[in-house]
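Example (one chain per record):
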Amino acid sequence: MDEQGSLRRFSVEARSTDIFGRVLCSARDQHFVVDGPVQNGCPGEAVTPPEIFLAGVATCGVELLQVIARDESIPLRSVSAQIEGWIDREHPVRTDVMVFNGARLKLWLDGVTREQADGLVQKFKSR
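Predicted structure:
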């Protein structure tokens, strides 16, 4: 990650392996395997690109809710997230690139009132 004022840059490298459809990714000094899906003739054993994307969104939600609660001295004990996304190839959102048709993120916040939880989620959504 490279920071300059409010600008933050992130970098991930990906390269093919000796196994068709298996990709080795590196972010800083962390390495992980991503597999293309079985329907593409790939192994499908490791997480897939859509799952990695959704994991990033869910992780962002959990982490940012913790940060917002800490900054506002709200006694948030824990956060859980579950996300699902869908791609409908017969009804694409765009014709030039494949993207999710939609996604649904569910959040569970423990240790706060309903009003505090609603406020935290609204602040997360506005970031």
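Caption: Strands lie at 2-4, 7-9, 13-16, 22-27, 30-35, 78-86, 102-110.
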